[in-house]
Amino acid sequence: MTQGTELRLDRRSAADELSAVAALLQGGNVLALTGAGISTESGIPDYRGPDGNRRVTPMQYAEFLSSAQARRRYWARSYVGWQRFNVARPNTGHEAVARLQQAGIVGPVITQNVDGLHQAAGAIDVTELHGSLAKVVCLTCGDRTSRWDLDARMREANPAYTATSDEIRPDGDIALNDLDVTAFVVPLCLVCGRDTLKPEVVFFGESVPKPLVAHCFRLTEGAGSLLVLGSSLKVMSGYRFVRRAAARGIPVVIITRGPTRGDGEATLQLNAELGPTLTELVSRLGA
Length: 287
Known about the structure:
The protein is an alpha/beta fold.
């Protein structure tokens, strides 16, 4: 078999797989579960490469709680990272999910991302499993504020702070050296004056609130199919919904790059880039 023949077979196979996905989803009542992979085309890299191995180690929840210095390090890094994270815009994958929703094919969306890009693309009924970077909570008194307000306060408190980075991570964090961290004036809660402000997101080592998990299980059990987009499913946080769907006989479709933890439960699986694949899926489903 020549190389050209092999390429034609690969393309035909991919087209056949996408046709099978379209046929399965066309009945509607699709629950979408999205991960960091759907935001990579917006310039926000995921934590893991196509091989599923973690590229970076984010701050753990216990570490954040452990000391004022750890919180200073987090906020200094996050302050710099937010400047790039905040300018990210929805890509064609986010837009395709919104169009499938508007066409009545996709229903609710559960996202493991904290970037708000699904909503920015026009999606509704989005459950943010791991919270949102746009919100900040004080762990001492419970006061809540917006990240944009906090960013303005940090900018005012650090007028000469010039640390920069070309890095960006899924949680808006970046790496800084110790000198840049030490020079940063950490934000304090306006209500209680403590330094225990935290983005309202689930850190690594922290648990998703049980009522939120229960809500997502109900969404899963009420779905006609589960569409997983851009997630390796390495952590139980998202993988449990794939397991629940499979246990209930609900078809599971996975579209992402590389292998996933849910491959054994998948009814259909596409190893593909999300933007072009979802755009083509929208076309095939007439959305």
